Amino acid sequence: MGVTGTDVAKDAADMVLTDDNFASIVAAIEEGRTVYSNIQKFLTYILNSNVGEAIPSVLFLLSRGLIPLPLTVMQILTIDLGTDMIPALGLGAERAEPGIMKEPPRAQTSHLLTKNVLWRAFAWYGMIGAVVSAGGYFFVNYLNGWPSVALAADGTKGYITATTMTLACVIFVQMANVMNCRTRNASVFSIGLWKNFKINVGIVVEFLILIALMHAPILQDVFQTGPLHWQEWVFLVCIPLPVFFIEELRKKIVRGRQPSTQVE
User: Fold this and answer.
1) pTM of this prediction?
2) Which CATH number is 39-94+106-257 given?
3) CA atoms within 13 A on the CB side of 177
């Protein structure tokens, strides 16, 4: 006890309650579990966009250049250092998930980057993002006559539109994924869809960054981007909801198989 306890007892104790309230132990454990969980959510979100960025480049390598690079280096840096950061920081302020205090204690040897975190980041969220981003790239080329004509070559207007579309697809998938990452297995609706103000601001900011990249002449020159047509915007608008509800379905299946949330 920090108030009524003796100095000798405080020096010998592993834990000192400054308010002499045993309920503080419960609150501290809940806070610690929430912080640990939020760091894992942050890592999941930050890592998953790498797959959406990498797969298009893999297509370029496997095709030996027949498929031009769907994303430029500057566009990849835009995602990693720009559009992803503010929503990711919002995940650090996420509230505790329902049932977090019913979980068993973690092993002292457990790591932040667990197999489940890596699986969700790369094999699940990441692969969904990769399919969508590659689909957006080929969709633009399809509108321009592919496969009857060759894919737009580097430096052409069609190529700039295709790479901009790929960039926009990754960003729109990430808008859905930041909501998905707010919980591990619980439904996002159970914690309030729009209750995290910082994430809401982050989504708006990354959308505004994308608009600036498309229409600001200075940024167009640096990042090799350009405006999109209405067909591409229809494609983009249709991305977030399916990505979000596919993950909600996965979480529902997991909850049905494993009623009590387990620690990763």
Assistant:
1) 0.88
2) 1.20.1110.10
3) 31
Find where tokens 């957006």 sit: 136
Position 261 confidence tier, pLDDT thresholds 50, 70, 90:
very low
Lowest mean pLDDT among 23-32, 67-76, 88-97: 23-32
Judge residue 1's burial from the number of C-beta atoms within 10 Å of its C-beta, 0-12 exposed, 13-18 middle, 19 or more buried. middle
User: What does the alpha-carbon distance between residue 132 and residue 112 come to, in Å, rounded to a whole number?
Assistant: 28
Confidence tier at 147 by pLDDT (50, 70, 90): confident
Q: Mean pLDDT over residues 176-186, rounded?
A: 94
* Residue recorded with tokens 């994308």: 210
Q: Hunting for tokens 């989504």 — which residue is that?
A: 203
Q: Which residues of 66-98 are buried (b: 16+ CB within 10 A; e: fewer)?
A: ebbbbbbeebbebbeebbbebbbebbeebeebe
The helix (H) or strand (E) run that includes residue 47 is helix 23-62
**Residue 93 DSSP symbol:** T
79, 167 contact by CB (below 8 A): yes
Which tokens sit at 67? Answer: 């498929």
Number of CB atoms found within 10 A of residue 262's CB: 11
Cβ atoms of 222 and 232 closer than 8 Å: no
